[in-house]
Description:
Layout: H1 2-21, E1 28-31, E2 38-39, E3 42-44, E4 50-52, H2 56-63, E5 69-77, E6 88-96, H3 99-102, H4 116-125, E7 134-140, E8 144-149, E9 154-160, E10 165-170, E11 181-183, H5 194-204, E12 215-216, H6 222-232, E13 235-238, E14 249-250, H7 251-264, E15 268-270, E16 287-288, E17 290-293, H8 295-306, H9 311-321
Helix pairs in contact: 5-8
Amino acid sequence: MLRDQKKLDVITNDVLKKALRYTGKLGTMASEEEDMPVNAQIETTAAGTVLSDTGKYAARAVNERSLSLVPGFDPLDGSSNVDAGIAVGTIFGIFKESEETSKACDLPANLKDLDDDQVSCLAATLQPGKALVAAGYVLYSCSTELVFTLGRGVVGFTLDSSIGEYVLTRPNITIPTRGKIYSCNEANIENWDEPMQKYIRDIQTGQGETKEKYSLRYIGSMVGDVHRTLLYGGLFAYPADTKNKDGKLRLLYEAAPMSFLLEQAGGLATTGHNRVMDIPPTSVHQRVPIVLGSKEDVEECRKYYDESDDPKLKERCANRLKGLVTS
Length: 327
């Protein structure tokens, strides 16, 4: 089963890469399924063969190199749910490559052997969420939903299979300022940082600001859980724990795009102490803890972190914001 799931991840990744390459708009792509960002003008097959682009698409890509877009994506979020028929999705964020982002960046010692093209791709990709120009997700469930932002609000489309087109069904998505649902893997609560433990227990028992008991809803697919949170309010969380001090979700192509989307819908996203969108990535697959959702719910959660006197927790948060590797 695991082998089939991995194969589906690879197939989805290849489909997205091929579709994106032939837009002629891209210089670099980053994916959860790739160790490093890749040049969009070069195709790498699953077997490892590298094929150079030829023809009008390659020419157009070269001509528009100065205006290249840089997408980062998780091709199949929640793939472990596939065999159970549970909702999965694709998450994406798009940056714009500029002269500044194309400059070589400081690389860790173990990456000093990269060639010039790899360094250029990495430099173009490592941008904070606040530099995103677009972000969104596709939810594959009982219907196929495309939800995205271009930095001017959030819109939602539904695939009409009879015409093969996405139809605008949610022209202006805004998240409620408060919700009554929280979404997280509560089985790990004993291992979370103390502020997150206390916050969840308070809203469970009606001791939070609203004095209402919140209900737990958790799918185990970020796209599915965030989609519900966006429409109905409340919050989604994947906090740090004793084993994963930086959480498990990837900053570049999961946490940052979803944070951009939620902020554009009127919500918030935080690591606890810091705005997710402000964190500069130190690597393509960097992980961060995240709490996102309704504005007032996230603000309430953040107060628990602000009241914490744990120096190690504050140090980790401060280091992320400085672009330092946390420990």
